[in-house]
Amino acid sequence: MENSKFGEKFTQIAVKLGNQIHLRTLRDAFATIMPLYILAGLAVLLNNTVFTWIFKGATLVSVQYWGTLITNATLNISGLLIAAMIGYHLAQNRRFDNPLAAVLVSVSSLIVMMPNTVSVTPDGAKKAVDVSSVLTFTNLGTGSMFAGIIVALLATELFIRVSSYKRLQVNLGENVPPAVGKSFNVLIPIIIVVSVFAVASALLNNIAGMNLINLITTAIQEPLRHIGTGLWGAIILYSLGNMLWLFGIHQSVIYSSILEPLLIINITQNIAAYNNGQAIPNIINVSQVASFGLIGGSGSTLCLLLATFLVGRNSVTRSVGKLAIAPGIFNINEPVIFGYPIVYNLSMAVPFILVPALGIFISYVATAIGWMSPCVVMVPWTTPIGLSAFLATAGDWRAVVVQLVVFVLGVLIYMPFVKINDNVLKAQAKSDADEAAVNA
């Protein structure tokens, strides 16, 4: 009874967390922008591997210009893009009737917080010079992603609140085009919100001699990212997410809302560093976690399926395995989660949480000691085993070997629990048969 009450209470808390509007907005925004990050990873992969195999000299430089343009249009404006998407999705989640206006406010508020003078190094020069009235990729790209998140959330919330006051709405009547009417309705709220952020930016510059991008990056983004995406922070958060599946709650409540945004920031930094020929800064990132902790889906259940085929004797679980193997290859494992099942199945709890954590740990150690390259390409989460590790590391075959080692260990860990689950199911079937006989 106590366990049931605990499970019910835990479920309620997790559901509330997953439905929290700002976390849900983060999840929606990053899901929307994901194709551009995958495109950026593809461009960097082609620029730095495939193209270098085919082209040389001036021809290589000319061909790589394509990848540079793609990087500029995706990775190098990622802070601006995430601000726009957060403004849109938060307005939608708040059921605000003009989400595009929220996009305008979010983007403008982020730009207004950026410095007016920046230090840049001209091509061929050794010393940096100060330049005014320019926006740099440094401030628009991965370095401003966390600032974009915070500014967009604050600006959109303030904009929606101010827009709710009827006295601040300019109503032109019913005889004007709808787009014009909507624009004038939010005219004064937009002026107020952007002006508030401009005042804050001016005060930071004149009093402290700094800007919000640097302040947020230094004081908030980097400490939080290092804690959340350190080895143990990532393992704990990811394991908590997988634990939610045991209660029938999608692990995205924790993973997509809390951990994944930080992991995406890490992979974007890796992509940028790899593209520029610099040292790769982050071992833990979204591609590393997905490739080594998501083999077959949450809980690395492709390992469970193979273990079931090897030692499983229950006809039901083997039938589920046959149905689930095809989608499982592409990391889609709902048939396993609900059909095997994993949900409320204590027999599967330990390996379901342990195997992904082990995959993250082994791949981290292998990268740290130089047995494989770090992940520098963002691959789709549906990429099959083997191919995912190869692409994520820009073509390092050693990563495939490490991934296969993780897979084999995962199978071995799942095997005794498959046998335990078979015995539990057999005992339950016998109990049901005895009860039916008594009631007959």
What labels would you give this structure?
transport, membrane, mainly alpha, 19 helices, single chain, two-stranded antiparallel ribbon, PTS_EIIC_3
DSSP strand count: 2
Rg, alpha carbons: 25 Å
How many helical stretches? Answer: 19
Which structural class best describes the helix and strand composition? Answer: mainly alpha
Strand order of the largest sheet: 1-2
Estimated helix fraction: over 70%
Biggest sheet details? 2 strands, antiparallel
The parts where pLDDT drops under 50 for at least 5 residues are: none
Beta fraction: under 5%
Task: Report the average pLDDT across residues.
Answer: 85
Cα end-to-end separation: 29 Å
Strand/helix succession: HHHHHEEHHHHHHHHHHHHHH
Quick one: overall form? globular
The tally of structural domains comes to 2
Subcellular location: Cell membrane
Organism: Lapidilactobacillus mulanensis
Protein name: Permease IIC component
Membrane topology: Multi-pass membrane protein
